[in-house]
Amino acid sequence: MSEPQGSEGTTQRLPVVEQTADPGTLDRSAAAEAPEPRPVLDEEAGANGRFWSARRVPAALCALLLLAVAGLFLYDIAAVRADRPAMAWRRDLARQLAERPLDDIWVLVGAGVAAALGLWLIVLAATPGLRSLLPMRRTHTDVRAGLDRDAAALVLRDRAMEVAGVQSVRVRMGRARADVRALSHFRDLDDVRADLDAALADAIRGLGLSRPPTLSVHVRRPGRKG
Predict the structure, then answer these.
(1) 201/23 Cα distance (integer angstroms)
(2) pTM
(3) What is the pLDDT of residue 113?
(4) I want to staple 192 with a disulfide (CB 3.0 to 4.6 A). Which of 95, 100, 173, 184 is the partner?
């Protein structure tokens, strides 16, 4: 009896079909793992106001003065309550206030000094201060930067010195205006001024200020020696 053919043949491995994940699931998981981008402000929303000064010195002086005056009055009142005579300066002050008329020169001087001090404190409380710090555009909501006016003037001066024909430059940087005065020892003055306008305008844009200052350029020849 003959045996069936193919009984001793090699075993073949069946192909394995790998299960692929759903593309939508991968996209959702990748989006969940990716960090959220920081909100970026556009150019119109990037403008911001000046930095506010803490004004620690005026606040400390005002607090010390009020503390000293309040301490003196409190001590004198406590002494009077303890059946002791009041201080001589307080008795004299009460007598002067009771006897002097309102149009007296010293009363007017004291009222003027008090009004000036009060006005000074109101101005300090209502104005931001820090005039030497120029606010920069905000590109992120949680980041705010400023540029010192002297540093901005130094950047403009370095860019102006790169222009051909410029011998020396003096830059005065303000909050609303940049005044540039240059000396040119060769080339036509109109050409030097045009190159300075272009170079400095590009430099001001590169500073990234919230409110770019107005550029004012003056070019002249150096004076004769002797």
Answers:
(1) 51
(2) 0.59
(3) 94
(4) 184
More confident residue, 52 or 119: 119
Angle at which helix 149-161 crosses helix 189-207, to 10 degrees, equals 140
Which residues neighbour 149 within 8 Å (Cβ) at sequence distance 6 or greater? 131, 132, 133, 134, 173, 174, 175
The answer to whether 147 touches 209, Cβ cutoff 8 Å, is yes
Nearest to 149 by CA among 207, 193, 216: 207
What is the sign of the dihedral through the CA atoms of 213, 172, 130 and 127?
negative
For the stretch 27-78, pLDDT in tens is: 555 444 544 444 444 444 445 677 788 788 888 888 899 899 899 889 888 8
Instruction: Give the DSSP letter string of 66-115.
Output: HHHHHHHHHHHHHHHHTT-PPPHHHHHHHHHHHHS-TT-HHHHHHHHHHH
Nearest to 155 by CA among 106, 104, 100, 208: 208
| Residues, the chain | 226
